[in-house]
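Both lines are retained for reference:
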Amino acid sequence: MDLSDRQCVERCRDGHPEDFSLLVDRYQKPLFAYLARRLGDRLEAEEAAQESFVRAFVALKKLRRPELFHSWLIGIASRILKEQFRSEQRRERTRAATGMLMEADLDNGPDYPLEEAIAALPETYRQVILLRYYEGLSCQEAATRLEMPLGTVTKTLSRAYGLLRQELQGRGSTQLAETGKINDELR
């Protein structure tokens, strides 16, 4: 039986925590890919993914819209990335202050304009972008997952592309030229 995200979350809340494993199985690969791409380290990405799922499980009762579990999970993972980055910045500043770090200027963190622009999108747009490009679903599969008409998904994607294009151009970002999949769709 293939339960929707909403059904899995509701069953977990109703005393069937074992159903959370269905969500883990469903989102483990896309979440790992999301984290590995940003961290550049498989071990750190695995640890961040595990931490994301643990935090999601613990906070599951706070999720207001269970059908948006994936987007919510990506938000949790994004917060973990920020925490790790801040922690690394503190360690590097401490090393620099004590003379242990000779060369690198580590006060400037990595720049992820596309990811920041996606995170800033309204929930509906962000959800469709995440399903389509980070999870690799077709528009039809995204429509099925979100329980919306295909036309609504394609229209939402079109609007999301426009918002992303506008945001990235406003930032003067060159990342558009570097982002394979989404780049083709944004043009």
Remarks:
- DSSP finds nine helices and no strands in the chain.
- The domain at 111-187 is CATH 1.10.10.10 (Arc Repressor Mutant, subunit A).
- The chain has two domains: 1-110, 111-187.
